[in-house]
Amino acid sequence: VPVPIHKMFDYLLPDCAEYANARPGARIAVPFGRYQKTAYLLEIASKTDIAPADLKPVIALLDETPLLSEDDLALLCWLSRYYHHPIGEVVNAAFPVLLRRGGSPGLEPAKAMQQTERGRAASLEDLRRRAPRQAALLDMLNQRSGSLPIAALAGLDWNWRPAVDSLGRKGLVRLVECDPAVQPERSVPLLPEIQLNRAQLDAVASVSAAFGTYKAFLLEGVTGSGKTEVYSRLIQRVLDRDEQAIVLLPEISLTPQLQARFSERLAAPVAVFHSGLTESDRCRAWLDMRHGRASVLLGTRSAVFTPLRRPGLLIVDEEHDPAFKQQEGFRFSARDVAVIRAQRLNIPVVLGSATPSLESQYNAMRRRYHSLFLPQRAGQALPPVFRLIDIRNQPLDEGLSPGLVALIAQTLARSEQILLFLNRRGFAPTLICHACGWVARCPRCDANLVVHANAERLRCHHCNHEKALPKRCQQCGVDDLRRLGLGTERVEKALMRLFPDAGLARVDRDSTRRKGSLENTLGNIHAGTVDILLGTQMLTKGHHFSRVTLVGILDVDAALYSIDYRAHERMAQQIIQVAGRAGREDKTGMVVLQTRHPEHALLRLLIEEGYRSFALAALTERKAANLPPYSHQALLRAEAVDPTAAHRFLTKVAAVAQALSRGRIDILGPVPAPRARRAGRYHYQLLLQCGHRQSLHALLDRLLPECFKLEERRRVRWSLDIDPSDLC
Ligand code: ADP
Ligand code: ZN
Ligand code: ZN
User: Fold this and answer.
1) Which of 144, 146, 453, 725 has its CA 20 to 30 A from that of 314?
2) Pocket lined around ligand 1, Cβ cut-off 6 Å
3) How far does CA 372 lie from the centroid of its chain?
């Protein structure tokens, strides 16, 4: 039963024909407390400890044929033990929401768009001017005798839904149910196979040789080295074997681009699964994979659980990305789950990245993963040139050094694009009174309020608390408030002043809040109307910008001296990922980093010798400090409105852990979490660390039941995070 309780529940399976087909993996409806719940049948037993009078009967069998295979069920049980998370919630996470709610697994028929009489008569000339997207859809309909399955639109790289809706409202098209037996026609023509280079061919050959067996590969390829082409070719091979593949991506915004590229190379349609789709679309994609009607699935984190009829290959692209770790509830790492799942299904798994995580790098060193390396950019593109600009004692114009400004001007003069990276949105991170030193703080968090000048608001980036931007100091009343530090809005304003004629686009969570606006901006960038692109880490993720030749990283120093032990790794990954956006076609790119620490050893290693050398050095530091991957961690978090309750609870837990571990496990804390007060609640944490994974898990097995017995737990919200990616 999907409830936060660490146990399975016994129910009586009535002895009648309706239940004759009940098998593990099927959904059932059961009474639970005063409610009826959709639950999952895990096991059929002939005995129970429950007294017969207390044993409640199952209300209904929802699946005649189980939706999960025994392999997948076994995987979920294993994950429940590994992550110490209640089995009901773990199994629940594997299902799309409609099925969790007990929805029928029978397929709602797919829809097709059909031209109406009015649509046939409509003047396209007029529409082309006013609504080019609607006109484009009508053009497509005309080419296909007036009917087009909606699924065929999924490969388009623009947001077609509003256009379909508008056409429907105008009565120019109608949506009808289409015959599921008819395969959707291709929306893009199949491109001829490209000639892979030596390294790509080797990678494809190694993985293909492992089809039908478990083997984990770490595909390390510098940005632009042709990893995506390797994936396409591998998936083609999987399709030739009549098997299925799942490709995991860290971010929704990357799916259209990758889907479009796969659609050009693969004969089979590509299904997608992510939170941007409607529930029924997601459910359909899930069932299509389950029943083998679709062969390729592209999805984010939770797509890793999608059941496969004929499993062939799992791919995790950008495997280093922290977004693969779920940060609430069932805190799993989709990358790690993919590896375990491949092992259980006996199929290969490919983890790809230009900047592999230190964990994966370490697994490759220990030969748990097989290393594949694409050392060069494919085609003609050359690697970018790095340059450090020492900004000590330099006059900065809103964070821009004279050297960087000059380079931007030269790049604009050559009509090439510029990408500037600053990982902080808003105008300025601090508002301070010049007269008395008062700083605008969030009343609910240990954090400063961030100035958002465009919206004229102060906002907390941790709890979303906001208020109007004050004119005067709220402590002394003087009107001399100063804005300290840099945010993207501030740099944007400076760029508008410095380069008034340049096309400028800012990409961050504020500028892309409206649905479709990120797609629009990306479209403009590709169309070439944008000269300078300014943004946060949203820009670092896998997007292709072919005309960018100058990349500026405005501030690397914050990461150099962060308290987070992963900060160096994240910094290096971001630098290399942003740098990968430069000079991708025929021109060499330049990457400029502004820093006050040009002598920093890891930074120099990174830009002089590359990510691999950096990673080896960073691993040496981790080893010396006995940090992951050289040790294993579990983090207990607790929070409460009462400032001392969480600390009291974790102190008790620490004492129990101490007694159970007999010195084999490091028990660190409890300590206040970074920014201990968040949204009015006080956060504490207790870190358990051990060089031996089994010992850590054995301790947790005994510790958790004790935690549930502690009286102090009643006053806190607490959770356990296995292999935490953030200690906050
Ligand atoms: P990555 O995924 O590693 O960043 P891509 O697969 O996107 O790299 O490849 C970068 C560019 O190089 C793309 O435009 C791609 O079509 C092209 N490319 C990849 N492999 C080859 C090849 N063997 N020959 C020519 N062009 C290639
Ligand atoms: Zn003041
Ligand atoms: Zn706050």
Assistant:
1) 725
2) 194-197, 200, 221, 223-229, 378-379
3) 23
Q: Whose CA is nearest to atom 12 of ligand 1?
A: 378
* Complete edge-to-edge strand list for the sheet that includes strand 417-421: 385-390, 590-595, 548-553, 417-421, 532-535, 504-507
Ligand 3: centre distance to CA 676 (Å): 11
User: 301 alpha carbon to ligand 3 midpoint, in Å?
Assistant: 28
Which ligand ends up closest to the CA of 463? 3
With the most atoms of ligand 1 within 8 angstroms of its CB, the residue from 202, 220, 229, 235 to mutate is 229
Of ligand 1's listed atoms, the one at least distance from the Cα of 223 is 4
pLDDT along the chain (728 residues), means of 10: 93 87 93 93 92 90 92 96 96 94 73 81 80 83 74 67 85 75 57 89 97 97 91 95 96 82 86 84 91 92 96 97 94 97 97 96 96 86 87 92 96 93 93 94 93 94 92 93 94 96 91 76 80 87 78 88 87 89 76 93 92 94 93 96 94 94 90 91 95 94 93 94 89
Give per-residue pLDDT as tens, 496-517. Answer: 999 999 999 999 888 887 767 7
- The predicted structure's pLDDT at residue 90: 97
Return residues with CB closer than 5 A to ligand 3 (ion).
Answer: 442, 444-445, 460, 462-463, 465
Cα 488 to middle of ligand 2, angstroms: 26
Rounded to the nearest whole angstrom, what is the distance from the C-alpha of residue 457 to the centroid of ligand 2? 19
For the CA of 544, the nearest atom of ligand 1 = 7
Angle at 351 between CA 350 and CA 353, to 5 degrees: 135
Of 206, 214, 190, 187, which Cα lies nearest the Cα of 75?
Answer: 214
Cα–chain-centroid distance for residue 72? 22
The 8-class DSSP code of residue 333 comes to B
Q: Using an 8 Å Cβ cutoff, are 421 and 551 in contact?
A: yes
Task: Supply angle C-alpha 42, 47, 50, rounded to 5.
Answer: 90
Dihedral over Cα of 613, 615, 620, 621: its sign: positive
What is the structure's pLDDT at 181?
47
Q: Quote the ligand 2 centre to 494 CA distance (angstroms).
A: 27
What is the CA(442)–ligand 3 centre distance, in A?
A: 5
First to last CA, the chain: 30
Strand partners, 400: 397
Please name the helix (run of DSSP H) or strand (run of DSSP E) that holds residue 457, with its range, or none.
Answer: strand 457-459
Query: Omega before 132 cis (within 30°)?
Result: no
Query: How far does the centroid of ligand 2 lie from the alpha carbon of residue 443, in Å?
Result: 17
Dist CA 629 CA 622 (whole Å): 8
Task: Tell me which residue of 299, 234, 294, 288 sits closest to 265, measured CA to CA.
Answer: 234
Q: What is the pLDDT of residues 219-265, one digit of tens each?
A: 999 888 999 999 999 999 999 999 999 999 998 877 888 888 888 88
Say which amino acid occupies 488. Answer: T
Tokens of 399: 């964070």
CA dist., res. 76 & res. 58, Å (int): 22
SS3 697: helix
**DSSP code for 48:** -
**Ligand lying nearest the CA atom of residue 258:** 1
Residue with CA at minimum distance from ligand 1 atom 6: 226
Contact of 469 with 489, CB cutoff 8 Å: no
Total Cβ atoms within 10 A of residue 451: 25
Q: In angstroms, rounded to a whole number, what is the distance separating the alpha carbons of residues 597 and 649?
A: 42
Check residue 326 and give its pLDDT.
Answer: 95
Give the ligand 1 atom nearest the CA of 546: 14
The closest residue, in CA terms, to atom 9 on ligand 1 is 226
pLDDT number for residue 151: 66
640, containing H or E segment: strand 632-640
Predicted local confidence at residue 672, as pLDDT: 93
Q: Considering the entire predicted model, what is its pTM? A: 0.87
Residue 171 is predicted with a pLDDT of: 86
Residue 557 DSSP symbol: H
